[in-house]
Amino acid sequence: MIMSAPQNSLQSSKSVNTYRTVPGLIYICRLIGKDSSVPRVLHKHTDRVEVVFIVKGGGKYLIGDKHYNANPGDVLIFNNNVVHDEITHTSDNSLIYSIGIDSQTWGKTLLKYEVITDFPPHIKCSDNFNLLVEYFNLLWNSESVDYMNSHAAFTELIELLALSSRDASYSNASDVNNVFGEKILNYIEENFQNEIFLEDIADEFDANLFYIIHEFKKFTGYPPKKYIILRRIGEAQSLLVSTKKSITEIANSVGYSNISNFNRIFKKVTGMAPSSYQNYLKKCIISRSGLFENH
């Protein structure tokens, strides 16, 4: 049974270990107020699991092929290689945390609790709300908290989520069984970074164009054309954060040969230019290049 760490072990204090890393924790992000309104559109992670904790506010999330409504006290899990979309409902007092966890660290912990094969993407954690707030706050403020306390909070956080998953409710998800829609989605995932037209999809499956649009929208909630745009911009958002590529290089790598067109679409989707988006994230994330870099 997971218990809260002893009170004296979670007190803020300065230590010579302040800047040691927390193994497995890649980054932590905190979005406050209107900062959380910037869309983080369709994307996936290949090296990590992302955990989102709603303290205040809420949102709609597409995780894989299911839609979820998230409220305060809810945790969203974006597993490795699962495409997801994040649309938050914001207010001046919104507060949302997210952490990136190395896939191997996550897997080893869940295997210990025998939940790794069926870990739910949406967990209602209202019973442990105050404890989760304590853990996330401590991790965010790790520059002023010693290493042992940060590591204890991180370990207990994963264990708490693993145990909470056993009682997780799936009732808030829309479940659509659509084999053909999934086939279309897989085709788009393999080709969205290249020049792709709806006619190409129809030819691939020897199907009527309108039937393609209908089935895909029924499966994902998006028309194919909009999904492709969001998937490209979502991938661009990831590259802007995780690489040192130029904006032109990123535009080309996600299917846009015209940089002006890319800039226009990126701003239309996210509300800001690519360069502004990079600067915006700098104030929201403590990354592995600093405090949480693995040795």
From TrEMBL:
UniProt-listed PROSITE patterns: HTH_ARAC_FAMILY_1 (PS00041), HTH_ARAC_FAMILY_2 (PS01124)
- Pfam families from the xrefs? AraC_binding, HTH_18
Instruction: List the GO molecular function terms.
Output: DNA-binding transcription factor activity; sequence-specific DNA binding
Q: What InterPro entries does the record tag this protein with? A: AraC-bd (IPR003313), Homeodomain-like_sf (IPR009057), HTH-like (IPR037923), HTH_AraC (IPR018060), HTH_AraC-typ_CS (IPR018062), RmlC-like_jellyroll (IPR014710), Tscrpt_reg_AraC-type_HTH (IPR020449)
The residue ranges of the HTH araC/xylS-type domain are 182-280
Q: Which Gene3D superfamilies match?
A: Homeodomain-like, Jelly Rolls
Keywords in alphabetical order: Activator, DNA-binding, Transcription, Transcription regulation
- Protein name, entry field: Arabinose operon regulatory protein
